[in-house]
Amino acid sequence: MFLKMFFLQMFGGDLLKTIAVIGTGYVGLVSGTCFAEIGNDVICCDIEEEKVKKLQLAEVPFYEPGLGEMMKKNMMENRLRFTTNSSAAIQAADIVYIAVGTPMKEDGGADLKYVKAVAKDIGRNLNGYKIVVNKSTVPVGTGSLVYECIRDNQVDKSVNFDVVSNPEFLREGSAISDCMNMERAIIGSNSEAAAKVIQELHAPFNTQVMITDLESAEMIKYAANGFLATKISFINSIANICEKVGADVSEVAAGIGMDGRIGNRFLQAGIGYGGSCFPKDTHALLHIALEAGYSFDLMKSVISTNDKQRLTVIHKLHEIFGDLAGRQVGILGLTFKPNTDDMRYSPSIDIISKLHEEKAVIRAYDPVGLERAKEIIGNKASYFNDIYETIKGCDACVILTEWEEIVNLELDRLYSSLRHPVIVDGRNCMNRTDMIKHGFIYHSIGRKPIGQLKTILS
Fold it and tell me: Which strands sit side by side in the sheet containing 41-45, from one edge to the other?
């Protein structure tokens, strides 16, 4: 109650809204919870009954630091609730956020069947003026499609509504911070009044706001992710060249990052990007270009480079051991990045599949992603809850995710646990000086290798 009174005083009572968020996946649940945190009345809706039952008990269906605590707080203060009753949620709301999944289709395009289903549901339950906001990452033109779906399913055609695009820019593992300290808010609409309402909704986030048309807002999300993916594939390509010419990609990245036109972010060489956004959005951007009659060769290369890059660690194991059949390999880190249990498009999936194909014996560890990994990777690996038990007796340790627990390994214990002191670092997260000091055979991405196995085997 105190928080709500604070925002009433600071921003005015008309700015606090009743918001329905349709879809309680990553984007919907985080966004809904943060909207409640700044004082709004939020109803999160999902069609999965068991999921909603767990949410009503404040059980978060995925790992995201700080989300559970914020959910519980806002539920206790009656600003956040969960339901399967989409009709009631839509009818009660001033603003309806569409935050359902847009999975990749076989042709690389985004599947909009869930977005369309929600738009139809909104049309059937439109009982007064509402602003409908696309939070899901959707192709250019989806705002107009949503408008038509709602209009076609309206019972009372005299009721007006507006459609807004408000794409999300949340990073898994830091989503609460990203939302509460928002870097920017993109608001696209053909209605100046609707755009102003969504702009005011974001006022407590103290963020930069850009207002544009629907199509530009939709394109901004894809262009942003496409550009960041390009930076990642570029620096990984530079890393591969560095290895051949004896340069150090870490030094190269630091040097080019000093150029203000380039910047130093997303220049960490490694085994490429994964997760729910970059793989899906780069393919979707390629599909958008194709549909528009443009051959986006640059994005094709970005995707191809990334696909190849994740197998770099396999090539390094071959350089060290030759044949991998029967070799025990300890995999440290399974999720696509730290501080999440998300396994979607994680490089570990392809790497473990390839190692399994080559008849290596795989032992795997991840601090929070084991259960999801088991569902995807299955019996191709053995799974462990302890790092040192994972690598015990292994011929090599392969680092695929730079979890804090992994970066801060006890190196003496690591050395003594391995059969051979071999580390292949797919994230360049270990200090080379420490590796030399402790006598490891250390291979990373785009940096000179340390040590030779021959001297140990001879």
Answer: 80-83, 41-45, 18-22, 95-98, 130-134, 161-165, 184-189, 208-212
Strands 184-189 and 161-165: antiparallel
In a domain, residue 301? The reply is no
Tens of pLDDT, residue by residue over 274-300, are 998 999 999 999 999 999 999 999 999
C-alpha separations of 377 from 12, 122, 380, 394, 449 in Å: 51, 38, 6, 20, 30
- Asked if 283 and 303 count as a contact pair (C-beta separation under 8 A), the reply is yes
> Are both 433 and 292 inside the same structural domain?
no
In this structure, the answer to whether residues 48 and 187 fall within a common structural domain is yes
Active-site residues, by number, are 277
The β-bridge partners of 399 are 332, 425
**Start-to-end Cα distance in the chain:** 72
0.85 exceeded by pTM: yes
**Where a domain ends, among 236, 264, 296?**
296
Number of Cβ atoms within 10 Å of the Cβ of 110:
23
What is the Cα–Cα distance from 104 to 89, expressed in whole angstroms? 28
Tell whether 156 and 243 lie within a shared domain.
no
Three-class SS state of 241: helix
- How far is Cα 452 from Cα 104, in angstroms, rounded to an integer? 43
